[in-house]
Amino acid sequence: MVSGEKDKVFSSKIKYDGLMDFKEFYKFCYQWLIEEPELEVIENKYAEKISGDAKNIDVEWTGFRKVTDYFKFQVVVKFKVINLTNVEVLQDGKKLKMNKGSVEVSISGTLVKDYDGKFERTSTQKFMRSIYEKWVIPSRVKEYEDKLVKACNDFLAQAKAFLDLEGKTNF
After folding, report:
1. Running DSSP on this structure, what letter comes out for residue 1?
2. What DSSP designation does 121 have?
3. What is the per-residue DSSP string for 101-162?
4. pLDDT value of position 4
5. If you ran DSSP here, which 8-state letter would residue 21 be given?
6. Are 18 and 119 in contact (CB under 8 A)?
7. Average pLDDT over residues 140-161
8. Which of 27, 92, 144, 149 is most buried, with most CB under 10 Å away?
């Protein structure tokens, strides 16, 4: 569990409706989070609900990265897939198995300060922490907030680009 003070610095989502290879999209997103912002990713939830030929899928990941002994990035990614069906499409005269459906991907980024709670033990330590953050390291706080916002924005841009490319290439 993450303790310390948490500041949510980013929250956004993308929506896509069309053709995709959901399995490849899932892998792409996971790999991107591990490789680019170098997060440790945990899958908190994976639920499938089948209705006839269609699936609804809910996925939730939490990613963490210790940036320093004081700062930690925490990212929550949620996938909501509606009416995912298997389809065959023709590309260059070949039949390809794809999926068709709607997907919504949301991400929130939180900068966790004092994640080990080292400055939470006494009221004096809490006071010293507030002085430290307000007067000693405000530019560093802003720098880490900006890095986290960029990582979240880049993730959504890459996810959208993957879906747009998949849908157009195989249509």
Report:
1. -
2. S
3. EEEEEEEEEEEEESTT-TT-SSHHHHHHHHHIIIIISHHHHHHHHHHHHHHHHHHHHHHHHH
4. 74
5. -
6. no
7. 97
8. 144
